[in-house]
Each structure stands twice: as C-alpha cells, then as structure tokens.
Amino acid sequence: MKLYGINDMARVDCAGCEGCSVCCRGMGDTIVLDPFDSYRLTKRLHKSFEEMLDDCIGLHVAEGVILPHLLMAGEDAHCVFLNEEGRCSIHEARPGLCRIFPLGRSYEGGELRYFLLEECPKEGKSKVKIHKWLDTPDITKNQQFLISWHRLRGKLREKAAATPEKSKEINLLLLHLFFVQPYEKDADFYSQFEARYAEVLLKLSETEG
Ligand code: SF4
Ligand code: SF4
C-alpha cells in the first residue's frame, strides 16, 4: 500500500463530485468524529454536543472505547447532512473523515500518512497535493492533534482491555472532557485540546492507583 504525506500529490480530486454522493450514504457508524470535528460542528450548528445527540450524531463502542459518529437516515441510509440536491449542507464544517475521502489515514510508526481508498467510483480523478485536498487550516497543528488523539485512543483501548471494571469510568471521562464539556469558541481549539489531554493523562494515572 502506497502511503502519502501531505506534500505529496495523489489522484484524489473528484472535481466537486458532480452529483455523486456515494460516500455520504450507507456509511453506518463509520463516520467517526474526533474532538475537533465535534467542536467545528457545535460552532456551525449552534448546538451543544448533547443537543447534537438528539438528531445528528450517535454513539458507538469500538474496541472498548465510546466515540460519536454521524447519523444516517431514511431508506437509503443517507447522512443527515446530505441535502435534497445530494450535496453536503455543512460542507465548510464537514468532519475530517469526509474531508480526506477518498483517502484513508495510517498512523504506522507514529507518523500520519494517507492512502488511497477504492470506494470512490469517480473516474478520471486529477492529481492534487494532499495538503490542498484536506482543506484544513493550521494543518501542522491539526496533524499533531490527530496523532495525539490517535495515541490517546490507543492508550484508552489498552486501559479498558486491561481493567474492564474501569472501562465505564474511562469512557465517561473521555466523552465528558473531549466532547460534552464545551470548548471556548473564540479561543484556539488545539491549545484547549492539549490542556484536556494533559488532564486526562493525569486522571488516567490516578485510576492506576
Ligand atoms: S457530513 Fe457532508 S460530506 Fe460528510 S457524509 Fe455527511 S453529507 Fe457527506
Ligand atoms: S464517492 Fe468520490 S465522487 Fe462520490 S461524493 Fe464521494 S468523493 Fe465525491
């Protein structure tokens, strides 16, 4: 599998997708949100995380860790944000996994890299620099955040597996600190995340006692 860095070119540019919405349908609970996705959505929708749970996001458990995902609706199981024209109604605030499609992420060796997925049916895609395709401001901070978030989830998975009796406590801590507890909307997201990251590591070490 070929892995790409953000400064590499890859054939992923779907030219605006032109009426295709394949990757916005039938995705089950796989469009998983990270804290930055959640922060961006709460700002865009003017809703709290808990209010979003009422109509646009759900929770699922993956390898012992509870995480939020976008909801699908209707007989064709389309994303709740797909509008009648088959376009994304929250395009500027779409989650990271939607931004990178048709790419997937790899964290092999502690480095964030991208690889091509086969699910996008669009033919004749053009080459584009991955950095541009991701359409994400503060890309360096965002990449550091993604690596930290990935590491933390791994740590929590291990912890939940090693101490199943503490799994609920650990998951509630994760959900509360990174999703339910509001972020200051006008302050830098990444520094708020780092402060919470340090807090969760401290609390995790306390649960070891
Ligand atoms: S958020 Fe937008 S891009 Fe992502 S699945 Fe939903 S409609 Fe598609
Ligand atoms: S499957 Fe490919 S062409 Fe279709 S909406 Fe998704 S990225 Fe665009």
Describe this structure in words.
The protein has helices spanning 35-45, 49-55, 96-100, 130-134, 139-162, 167-180, 189-207; strands at residues 9-13, 57-62, 65-70, 72-73, 78-79, 103-106, 113-116, 126-129. It has 209 residues and is an alpha+beta fold. The chain has a two-stranded antiparallel sheet. Strands 2-3 form a two-stranded antiparallel ribbon. It has a two-stranded antiparallel ribbon with strand order 4-5. A hairpin with a 6-residue loop joins strand 6 and strand 7 (113-116). The protein has one domain (9-207). The structure holds iron/sulfur cluster (2 copies). One iron/sulfur cluster is lined by residues 14, 17, 20-23, 101-102, 120, 122.
List the defining traits of the structure above.
209 residues; alpha+beta; two-stranded antiparallel ribbon; 16% strand; globular; binds iron/sulfur cluster
Largest sheet: 2 strands, antiparallel
Low-confidence stretches: none
Number of domains: 1
Structure annotation, total helices: 7
- The coarse overall form would be globular
Structural class: alpha+beta
> Helicity, in percent?
40-55%
> What value does the average pLDDT take?
94
Sketch the topology as an H/E string, one letter per element: EHHEEEEHEEEHHHH
Strand order of the largest sheet: 1-8
Number of DSSP strand runs: 8
